[in-house]
Structures are given as C-alpha cells and as structure tokens.
Amino acid sequence: MIGRRITYRTADGVRIPGTWRHAFIRNGSYFLTDLFIYADGLIDCWGLVTVEEFEEKLRTGWVATTLPDGAEASAHDLASWKFSEPRSWLTPELVVAEVRDTIDRLNQRPDSTDRCLAAVDVFLADRTEENRAAAHTAFLAVPASNRRYALGDMDRKDWPLRVLVAGPGGRTYLPSDPPVSSEAYDRALAYFEERAHWRAQHDTRVPADGPEVAYAPAVHLSASYPNEAVSDPGRRGLRNDYPAPLTVGEVVYPSVAHAYWALSVTRPEVRSAIAAADTAFAARELAAAAARHEGWEHVRAAVMTRLLRAKYDQHPQLAEILLATDDATMIYDDIDSAFWGENGGRGRNWTGRLLELVRSELQLRRNAIPGL
C-alpha cells in the first residue's frame, strides 16, 4: 500500500514516482532497510533491478522473507540485534505480487484488487457460474495480505467477498471458515446490493462547499526582469518585481518588491536607498546587507499580504489580469527564495498562495455576499 510514502528518482531529467516499504537484505548478516519501488517497474534493493531480477533476489534470499533464529541483524546507525523465535508472514510469491500491484497503482492502472472488484461487478450483473468462477480466480489473485482491504470495510473486511465468490456450499480460502450456507450467501448478496446503492450516491454527490481542486489550469509565473511598465504586461504584471508604483503610507515605491525590502530594514537611510533602487534585484541586495527588524520572519507574510492588496487596489488593470486566472493554482517561480516561490518543484510558494487569497478577495468585491 502506497499511502503517504511518496518518493521519486530522476532518470534522463524525468521524475519517476515511487514509494517504499521495509525489507530485510541479507548480505552476510541481515539489514533492515527500505525497498524502493518505481513506476517504471524498477526496484531498488541496494541496486536497481527489474521485477524479474527482483524475483531472483527473493529466490536467492538477498531480499529475505525467512529469518533464521539467532541470525544477526541491524538497522543502519540505529541498532543491532539477534533474532529470537522470529516469525514472518511473507513469502517470495506474496512480495512479488504486492510489488506488481504497487507498480500498477503508481501508474494509475487497475491493480489486482480493482480487477477482482470489476469481475465481481460482472458476476452481479449476470450471475452465471462461469462469471462466479472468473470472480473467484480474480479474488485469489489478490495478494492474501491485501484481501482484507479489498472492500475498504474494516468492520467486515473481506467476508462478503470471499463468501460471494465461493457461492452456496463452497469453501472460502480460509480453512477456518465453514462451508458457505444459503443464509450467509444471501447476506453477502445483500451487502453488495447495499454497496452498489451507496456507491451510486457517492458518485453523484456534489461537495457542499464546491469543487475540492481548481478546475482552471495552473498558472506558472515565470521569473522575469522587467525594467519598464508596458501597456499590456499580461501575467508578467503579476510578478512582485513588475514596475507598478505602490503608495504605502506617504512613500511611493517602484514595485511590491521594493516596498517589501524597504519595510524589512531598520535604518531609514537604507529604506530610502531601497526605495530609489533602479531594479528590484538592487533593492534586494541592499536589504540583504542591512539589519532587519527583529522578528521579521514572523510578520513578513502579513506585510506581503498588505502590499499585494495595495498593488491590486491601486492598479485595477492588473487586478483584472489576476481575476482572469479564475481559480487556477498560482505557482510563483523564485530562484532566490524557497519561502516565497517554487523552483524545480521545491519551495513553499507563499507568493502564489497570497495571490490566490487576494484574488478571492477581489472576487468577493465583485460578487458581494450579503451579511459580509
């Protein structure tokens, strides 16, 4: 199961998504480590291998699924120990099946659980023994460790599923289960009928507060270094260094960037020099060499919010450009600050977030909500 375990590797400049799980590598003694699985079908078990090569690693015990009593083991830089009465629930076949499922999920393809549930849907629509046998085969192809999660029901687990595919009088894959009675089979059928009704309701449900994600394509505000305002700046006008004079108090700054850097410093003469700087880059350099207000990092987001509000209040034409981005995610490119921007997929993108906030406030003015 992938869950929140998301990673990647880079191949030929392309990011290959992946995930990881714990495993024991046997290289003399046993090492508890991470097994990385990638969408292109490669597995890193102290070296990248294909799925077929990974199966060989399991067969030879390089990736260990049996742990002998008394064997030495360690986790790098953490601890070492010896096994005492170890128990393992894995087999090579089970691990390979789980890895193949993981690769399917990383590629957003149906995995064995999805294929099983699709076969069950076919059987429920046309309840022939041939379709039941196909569903039963698909169910047994789900790794045993994943079957209990197939329905996403942690109260009943896979009971309705294993009973349905076994059929009246049949036996499930669990030796402890009795033969399937007619009453148990009817309860399993009723479960799937109720499940179908719930799924239909869920699929047509509209979120109470509207869409959960933006429907407009994301906007990437690439770095630009404009020295003069133009009549039609396009989205370049949304950059903080775009020359849009900004009045803050009694001072006029050439851009949001100038105002931000000037307000960050303590000495009035440096503030004046920043306000008079030819470029936003020069303004930043002056500020970087000067003393900042104590606790600036705690107030900088609030300062930037006020400056952005002022910019779009004082420049309606730029406000229209911002509004035209609709509900798009704003990605602000900034090679100098991982706090304010994003570069190469890294950064907190606070400028982008605040642009979305100010855009929402502009929308509120345009579409007034009674009571606000």
Give the helix/strand layout.
Blueprint: E1 7-11, E2 14-27, E3 29-38, E4 43-44, E5 48-49, H1 51-60, E6 63-64, E7 72-75, E8 79-82, H2 92-106, H3 112-125, H4 129-140, H5 144-147, H6 159-166, H7 182-204, E9 219-221, E10 246-248, E11 251-253, H8 256-264, H9 268-275, H10 280-288, H11 296-314, H12 316-323, E12 330-332, H13 350-366
Parallel strand pairs: 3-7, 9-12
Antiparallel strand pairs: 1-2, 2-3, 2-6, 3-4, 4-5, 7-8, 10-11
Helix pairs in contact: 1-2, 3-4, 4-6, 6-7, 8-9, 8-10, 8-11, 9-10, 11-12, 11-13
Task: Fill in the keyword field for this structure.
13 helices; alpha+beta; 372 residues; elongated; two-stranded parallel ribbon; eight-stranded mixed β-sheet; 15% strand; 12 strands
Could you describe the 3D structure shown?
This protein has 372 residues and is an alpha+beta fold. 42% of the residues lie in helices and 15% in strands. It contains 13 helices and twelve strands. The strands form three sheets. Strands 1, 2, 3, 4, 5, 6, 7 and 8 form an eight-stranded mixed beta sheet that branches. A two-stranded parallel sheet has the order 9-12. Helix 9 runs antiparallel to helix 10. It is elongated and about 85 Å long. The model has no long low-confidence stretch (mean pLDDT 94).
